[in-house]
Q: What sequence folds into this?
């Protein structure tokens, strides 16, 4: 281990000459491979299924708050994602990639961004779009530029702008009195943006608010996301920089003009938690360099606040992440770490 | 106290328990040894004996005129049987000298001064050269060259490398415990040759017995070395990482340790130096760790160079039925073997036998997780380098620093997609190296 030269141990193949003394075998032949001969136990399926497990608290809470429709929505998306994946595998003549878990994540995440009242057929369309266009057109897992679930959601937003922003209030909601027909209502962000009302932060934290499935309960997302960070399956820099930027920038804007929402409201509303912990951290579409991760998070945070305060849309999480996805290759290129010893004399 | 270390790196399972508490046993001298004429980095030796010649233990049987080279010695007393090409554990066939043992050791020792403290540095250097000493940590770089840095490089520190960061291997560990005096003497000799005053011994913290033993011996002697316990992390034993950990100096890209005024040598090398300078014994034997779940009774064996792997493995009760892989060296950088008739060479620190199906299961596409980036101790982007190498984008690869890779394998170890990163990078390095050379 002192000098760096190793004799090539790459292309050694035993010759197939039985007379060759190499092959006086009294046992099964030994396997030749190039070092390293050890591996971590981490694997792509393990990472993906762990992400799914980390999503479970949010899944359970959304079923608790929204009831069966939430369950139908999620299972529809997951199943159609799986079927779309199989179809694409078949068309491309590759092995079935369901076991790697990535299609399930896409389906589940997409479901989490949809309101429970959304029609299932439209949800299926969105999921298929996410898998086929969002992932496989780019070349499949690892090659997509955009987070497939968010791309699917953006597509749905374009197709069904009204339906996707019609929210059911959780059945346990205490503010039903505010709502005319007691079935649909705007999200806290929508309420704020278009009616200038703020919602109760406590309820936002626990999930007792209107919104899409995974948008509502910050606590369940934090638990699952924290688990991912501890397992190191998500880069902690991204949620920290993303949420931190939103908080700081939001605070500055609030201080300039108190008519804007306060920073805590920013943090807890509009699926930011879900986006920060589960979507921005999507490995495939976020930078590989540590510095890049900071830039990614900060950039997304600034975009988010700008969209929320000055854009025409109530929601900015989706676009802020998608935009940063688009510049990720660029970020990777310009944030190459300094080589060990580079620049030292 | 916070343990010193370098940045990034990985934590593979250590697997040292197989042999770390086993006293080194002396392997009986084999009836036949096979001495490769190239066991070092540099020019291969030319045989200076002929078939049928009688040779003594320690007699030089091959040498080269070239400066970057190191002579090889007979490791038994006997008769030259053949000079032919045989399989080398590095995987290719090379020229080797086969010697049939005819009797007990009849040593041919080197001329050494009575008291090395009074000898001139040139004399000591030539003894190290004549003794055929090379880096015993695995790289086998001729030691006398390391001891003769160019004038303009001012060397102020010497680090003895007792990290042994590769899993399984315990030969340095046992050497530090069982041959502490030789280790310290060898280190003192090297420091005298280099004319340096500051000596450090870097030992990973998973060898507390070695740390305390060496510290105790230093206190009792008049040597003034500093023992530095280091964090257990791979590749702590890589020269550049070790220097960063111990001295906080960064070897510049493309540079050598001497560029920051440091020379690093391995524990085994220090022992070889002590044996040569004090007892006049050339490098004819070394400790080899035979370990892993694939061998019946793992052991540390003091082995004559040129002994076949088979003999060592037999001494350890043989391979198990289910053994699938055998490699020379540790699992991170070791070289797979398919024929156990290959001889132990100077760089053979261990023979590891495993029953798992060697490397990894299914490969997935790169999911851009960046784990390899967080692992690379050289601060490279392994995923990109491997891709450039795969697609033969040599210019890009060069710009992205492929030549800085120390081939530690950390990237391939951590990759959840099981991508053969370092393997691609190695191929890329060869090609980029050729490209750079042809340009100049
Ligand atoms: S790129 Fe080279 S130096 Fe970096 S981790 Fe891989 S093998 Fe080690
Ligand atoms: S560790 Fe493997 S999957 Fe992750 S970025 Fe590196 S090469 Fe890609």
A:
């Amino acid at each position: 281990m002192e000098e760096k030269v190793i004799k090539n141990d790459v292309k050694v193949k035993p010759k197939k000459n039985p007379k060759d003394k190499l092959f006086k075998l009294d046992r099964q032949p030994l396997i030749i491979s190039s070092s390293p001969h050890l591996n971590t136990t981490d694997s792509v399926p393990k990472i993906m299924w762990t992400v799914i497990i980390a999503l479970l608290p949010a899944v359970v809470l959304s079923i608790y708050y929204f009831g069966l429709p939430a369950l139908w929505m999620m299972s529809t998306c997951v199943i159609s994602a799986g079927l779309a994946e199989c179809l694409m595998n078949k068309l491309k003549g590759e092995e079935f990639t369901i076991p790697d878990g990535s299609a399930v994540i896409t389906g589940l995440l997409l479901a989490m961004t949809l309101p429970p009242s959304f029609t299932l057929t439209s949800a299926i369309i969105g999921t298929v779009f996410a898998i086929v266009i969002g992932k496989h057109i780019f070349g499949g897992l690892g090659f997509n530029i955009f987070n497939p679930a968010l791309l699917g959601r953006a597509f749905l937003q374009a197709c069904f702008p009204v339906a996707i922003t019609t929210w059911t209030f959780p059945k346990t909601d205490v503010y039903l009195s505010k709502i005319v027909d007691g079935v649909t209502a705007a999200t806290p962000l929508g309420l704020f943006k278009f009616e200038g009302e703020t919602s109760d932060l406590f309820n936002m934290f626990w999930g007792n608010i209107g919104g899409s499935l995974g948008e509502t309960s910050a606590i369940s997302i934090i638990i699952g996301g924290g688990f991912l960070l501890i397992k190191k399956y998500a880069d902690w820099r991204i949620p920290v920089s993303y949420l931190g930027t939103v908080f700081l920038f939001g605070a500055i804007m609030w201080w300039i003009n108190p008519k804007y929402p306060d920073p805590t409201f920013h943090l807890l509303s509009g699926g930011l938690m879900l986006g920060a912990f589960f979507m921005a951290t999507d490995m495939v579409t976020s930078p590989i360099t540590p510095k890049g991760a900071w830039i990614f998070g900060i950039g997304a945070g600034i975009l988010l606040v700008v969209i929320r305060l000055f854009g025409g849309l109530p929601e900015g999480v989706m676009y802020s992440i998608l935009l940063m996805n688009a510049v990720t290759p660029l970020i990777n290129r310009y944030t190459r770490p300094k080589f060990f010893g580079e620049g030292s004399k | 106290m916070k343990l010193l270390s370098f940045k990034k790196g990985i934590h593979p399972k250590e697997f040292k328990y197989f042999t770390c508490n086993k006293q080194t046993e002396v392997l009986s001298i084999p009836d036949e040894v096979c001495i490769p004429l190239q066991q070092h980095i540099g020019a291969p030796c030319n045989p200076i004996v002929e078939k049928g010649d009688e040779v003594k233990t320690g007699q030089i049987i091959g040498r080269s005129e070239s400066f970057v080279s190191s002579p090889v010695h007979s490791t038994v007393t006997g008769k030259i049987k053949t000079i032919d090409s045989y399989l080398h554990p590095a995987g290719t066939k090379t020229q080797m000298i086969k010697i049939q043992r005819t009797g007990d050791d009849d040593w041919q020792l080197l001329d050494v001064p009575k008291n090395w403290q009074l000898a001139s540095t040139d004399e000591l250097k030539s003894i190290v050269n004549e003794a055929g000493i090379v880096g015993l940590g695995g790289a086998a770089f001729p030691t006398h060259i390391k001891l003769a840095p160019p004038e303009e490089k001012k060397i102020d520190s010497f680090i003895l490398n007792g990290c042994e960061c590769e899993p399984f291997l315990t030969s340095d560990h046992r050497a530090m415990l069982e041959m502490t005096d030789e280790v310290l003497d060898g280190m003192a000799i090297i420091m005298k040759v280099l004319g340096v005053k500051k000596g450090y011994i870097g030992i990973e913290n998973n060898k507390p017995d070695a740390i305390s033993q060496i510290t105790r011996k230093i206190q009792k002697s008049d040597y003034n070395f500093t023992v530095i316990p280091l964090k257990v992390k791979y590749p702590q034993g890589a020269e550049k990482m070790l220097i960063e950990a111990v001295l906080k100096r960064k070897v510049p890209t493309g540079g050598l340790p001497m560029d920051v005024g440091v020379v690093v040598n391995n524990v085994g090398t220090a022992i070889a130096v002590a044996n040569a300078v004090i007892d006049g014994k050339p490098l004819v034997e070394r400790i080899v760790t035979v370990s892993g779940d694939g061998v019946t009774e793992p052991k540390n064996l003091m082995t004559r160079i040129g002994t076949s792997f088979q003999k060592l493995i037999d001494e350890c009760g043989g391979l198990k039925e289910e053994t699938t892989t055998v490699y020379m060296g540790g699992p991170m950088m070791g070289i797979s073997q398919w024929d156990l008739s290959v001889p132990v060479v100077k760089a053979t620190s261990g023979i590891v036998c495993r029953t798992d199906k060697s490397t990894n299961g299914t490969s997935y596409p790169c999911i851009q997780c960046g784990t390899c980036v967080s692992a690379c101790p050289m601060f490279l982007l392994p995923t990109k380098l491997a891709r450039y190498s795969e697609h033969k984008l040599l210019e890009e690869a060069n710009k992205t620093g492929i030549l800085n890779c120390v081939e530690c394998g950390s990237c391939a170890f951590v990759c959840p997609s099981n991508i053969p990163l370092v393997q691609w990078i190695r191929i890329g390095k060869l090609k980029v190296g050729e490209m750079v050379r042809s340009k100049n």
Notes: The radius of gyration of chain B is 21 Å.
